[in-house]
């Protein structure tokens, strides 16, 4: 028989049983059995045409963009979307490509740590936040115009495409239960 206990922490209810804790209404799984949850669809295998199309779109979006900027954008979007799988992948990729640990630690608070990033990177991060959180009020004109001052039109279009793709990758990884640290590409 499974033993379960319930504890209340503020507005969250924690249910513990068989090494798994489920916190609050969002159903986030914590504990040692999180990786052992029921397998979900392998998107690449189940929808190969869609997967290949997204890979092509992603590659086209990156074309001509600074690789360091690409990783910063992907890291920030993954933080906002709470995609641990993509966040682990992109911080690891950025570190391997020579990005400093100091800058990687500052991405989440880039506005308060502005001196760690160039004006162009800050414009891209602001645009990333606006597009990723588009349901919270769209993309404000001032955010778009700031990015447009730093990116020529074709580069800006590719930056937007990059933001679209990382948001899609985040949703795929979260929906299909990708496990952070496995780096299954």
Walk me through what this model shows.
The protein is an alpha+beta fold. α3 runs parallel beside α6. The radius of gyration is 19 Å and the shape is globular.
Précis, in short:
With 185 residues, this protein is an alpha+beta fold. It has helices at residues 43-46, 48-62, 67-80, 84-96, 101-106, 119-132, 141-150, 153-175, and strands at residues 5-9, 12-17, 20-23, 28-31. A hairpin with a 2-residue loop joins β2 and β3 (20-23).
Helix content: 40-55%
Q: Span between N and C termini? A: 39 Å
Question: Beta-sheet strand percentage?
Answer: 5-15%
Compute the number of helices. Answer: 8
Low-confidence sequence ranges:
1-27
The geometry reads as: globular
Radius of gyration: 19 Å
Count of DSSP strands:
4
* Quaternary: single chain
For the largest beta sheet, what order do the strands appear in spatially? 1-2-3-4
Largest sheet: 4 strands, antiparallel
Mean pLDDT: 85
Structural class: alpha+beta
N-to-C order of helices and strands: EEEEHHHHHHHH
Write the layout of secondary structure elements.
Layout: E1 5-9, E2 12-17, E3 20-23, E4 28-31, H1 43-46, H2 48-62, H3 67-80, H4 84-96, H5 101-106, H6 119-132, H7 141-150, H8 153-175
Antiparallel strand pairs: 1-2, 2-3, 3-4
What are the main properties of this structure?
185 residues; alpha+beta; four-stranded antiparallel sheet; 8 helices; globular; disordered N terminus
């Amino acid at each position: 028989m499974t033993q379960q206990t319930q504890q209340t922490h503020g507005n969250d209810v924690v249910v513990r049983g068989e090494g798994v804790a489920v916190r609050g209404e969002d159903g986030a799984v914590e504990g040692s059995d999180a990786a052992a949850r029921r397998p979900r669809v392998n998107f690449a295998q189940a929808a190969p045409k869609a997967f290949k199309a997204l890979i092509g779109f992603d590659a086209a979006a990156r074309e001509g963009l600074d690789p360091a900027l690409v990783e910063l954008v992907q890291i920030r979007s993954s933080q906002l979307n709470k995609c641990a799988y993509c966040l682990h992948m992109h911080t690891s990729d950025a570190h391997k490509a020579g990005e400093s640990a100091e800058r990687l630690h500052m991405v989440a608070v880039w506005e308060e740590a502005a001196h760690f990033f160039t004006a162009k990177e800050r414009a891209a991060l602001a645009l990333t936040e606006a597009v990723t959180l588009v349901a919270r009020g769209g993309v404000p004109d001032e955010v778009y115009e700031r990015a447009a001052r730093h990116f020529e039109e074709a580069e800006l279009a590719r930056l937007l495409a990059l933001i679209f793709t990382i948001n899609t990758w985040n949703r795929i990884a979260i929906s299909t239960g990708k496990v952070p640290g496995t780096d299954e590409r």
